[in-house]
């Protein structure tokens, strides 16, 4: 069984051809709140990021994978960040770019594949996700895959002129 291949999608390393998609994603102001981005990214910076994306997770403490349909259509990205081998944990982030692919199982399958990879191949004990309290789709996604709400960070993010709560979800390997 291949860990990064599912029934309808597979997770793969980033490719130079992902530049245009990455450029649209990183410069989409509607998701800057989630990524804590405040300025646009140039194609040059993103090209350099792609050029270095092969570096080992143990070196750079993060891993971004492309979510691809079995027909090689790029559907989104899924990340491990704040990778901490000492404490055997990492954060998880996911974005599905096409509104028509959301709520159709792509995120569930991608997150399931990433969880298997993290727990089996990286030997992690836990994964966590930071989710805006009003992001019901993400709360449902992570909850359905066994993540449990561990806490509320009050007034954590400032967006749209006011503070918003952020929830911490954890999945601890049993």
UniProtKB/TrEMBL annotation:
PROSITE patterns on file: GNAT
Domain N-acetyltransferase: 9-170
Organism of derivation: Sinomicrobium oceani
SUPFAM superfamilies: Acyl-CoA N-acyltransferases (Nat) (SSF55729)
One MF term in the entry's GO annotations: acyltransferase activity, transferring groups other than amino-acyl groups
Keyword field: Transferase
Coiled coil: none
Protein name: Diamine N-acetyltransferase
PANTHER family with a match to the protein in the record: GNAT-FAMILY ACETYLTRANSFERASE, SPERMIDINE N(1)-ACETYLTRANSFERASE
């Amino acid at each position: 069984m291949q860990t990064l291949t599912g029934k309808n999608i597979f997770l793969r390393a980033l490719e130079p051809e992902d530049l245009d998609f990455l450029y649209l994603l990183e410069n989409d102001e509607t998701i800057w709140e989630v990524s804590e981005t405040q300025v646009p990214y140039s194609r040059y910076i993103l090209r350099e990021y792609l050029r270095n994306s092969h570096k080992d997770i143990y070196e750079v403490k993060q891993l971004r994978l492309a979510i691809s349909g079995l027909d090689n259509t790029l559907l989104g990205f899924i990340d491990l960040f704040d990778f901490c081998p000492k404490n055997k944990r990492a954060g998880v982030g996911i974005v599905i770019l096409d509104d028509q692919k959301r709520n159709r199982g792509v995120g569930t399958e991608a997150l399931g594949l990433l969880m298997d990879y993290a727990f089996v191949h990286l030997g992690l004990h836990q994964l966590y996700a930071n989710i805006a309290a009003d992001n019901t789709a993400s709360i449902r996604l992570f909850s359905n895959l066994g993540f449990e709400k561990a806490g509320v960070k009050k007034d954590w993010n400032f967006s749209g002129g006011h503070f918003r709560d952020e929830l911490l979800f954890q999945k601890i390997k049993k």
